[in-house]
Specification:
This protein has one domain: 3-Layer(aba) Sandwich (Rossmann fold), CATH 3.40.50.150. Strand 6, helix 8 and strand 7 form a beta-alpha-beta unit. The strands form two sheets. The chain has a seven-stranded mixed β-sheet. Helix content is 37%, strand content 17%. The longest helix has 21 residues. By secondary structure, it is of the alpha/beta class.
């Protein structure tokens, strides 16, 4: 079977292949962190030297743990709102819909033209799964989402905000709050220190990350409508069960044990984009 050429991707867009590779590697493991047989199928259909990620010692487990945690947050949303709408911004080659579809959710996947062109050759639209070619910084895709007449919306940005500037992230979140008040966004972020380290190790050299977050609660100062509802730091509780924790490199596990503030180096957040009440605010340790 002829493989699909990924040559139309820019170097920055090549980063979307890393989590796909990580999920495929994990699934081939006897006990996958994030079960995803579709990832193997997709990776085997693409003409690309995926071995470069292994040669660069990319942490496949870390990508899968991130995806696993975000899956769990999306599942929580779907448990509360089975007919809600999930929007994946910068979807890349993610297969979250395949993993979590409950039979009633509406799903919108948004990405840049080159990335979406590759995606559409591999993953088809369905009546409840729409794909839209657009930059998340544009507004046309918001009009399309508005046409769904969604009541409950969860936006997901996995590995996306890093490649935007701080002002761009703020403007995007405010735009979402304007158009879909009361919605929420789930996203991952890193401290400036970890971002600098990961840029140094980046296997795709011309894909440097920009945005970092020292304290996630500072995002609430961007807009009075923003409320940090959930904060999952590196190594936190049952989001990192022992069986999964052991799959991370020893150096990472030791760092978390010996230096507790390393919890804040990497975090996954759920930010409510609407008027917050005190009852909805979460309690969180200093430094969050």
């Amino acid at each position: 079977m002829k493989k699909i050429d990924a040559g139309s991707l820019t170097e920055a867009q090549e980063t979307l292949l890393i989590p796909l590779w990580a999920r495929a590697v994990s699934h081939r493991h006897g006990e996958p962190i994030l079960p995803d047989p579709r990832a193997i199928e997709l990776m085997d259909s693409i003409d690309y030297p995926f071995e470069r990620f292994e040669q660069a010692n990319v942490d496949a487990a870390g990508f899968c743990i991130r995806g696993r945690i975000i899956d769990r947050l999306v599942e929580q949303f779907l448990d509360a709102h089975p007919t809600g709408t999930v929007v994946e911004m910068g979807v890349g080659l993610d297969t979250r819909f395949d993993r979590l579809d409950n039979g009633t959710v509406s799903w919108l996947e948004v990405d840049l033209p080159e990335a979406m062109e590759l995606r559409r050759q591999l993953i088809a639209e369905t009546p409840r799964r729409r794909q839209e070619c657009a930059s998340v910084l544009e507004t046309d895709w918001l009009d399309i989402l508005d046409s769904f007449a969604p009541i409950q919306v969860l936006f997901v940005a996995e590995g996306v905000f890093y490649f935007l500037g701080s002002r761009q992230v703020q403007t995007l979140l405010q735009r979402l709050a304007d158009r879909f008040p009361g919605s929420a966004v789930v996203f991952d972020c890193q401290s400036p220190l970890l971002l600098a380290y990961n840029n140094w190790r980046q296997p795709v050299r011309n894909a440097q990350m920009q945005w970092s977050v020292r304290r996630a609660r500072d995002l609430e100062a961007w807009d009075p409508r923003f409320c940090l509802e959930q904060y999952i730091g590196f190594g936190d509780g049952d989001y990192y069960p022992l069986a999964i924790w052991k799959r991370l490199p020893l150096a990472q596990r030791l760092l978390r044990r010996l230096w507790p503030p390393s919890r804040h180096l990497f975090k996954i957040c759920r930010l409510r984009l609407g008027a917050a009440t005190e009852g909805r605010r979460i309690s969180r340790p200093a430094g969050t």
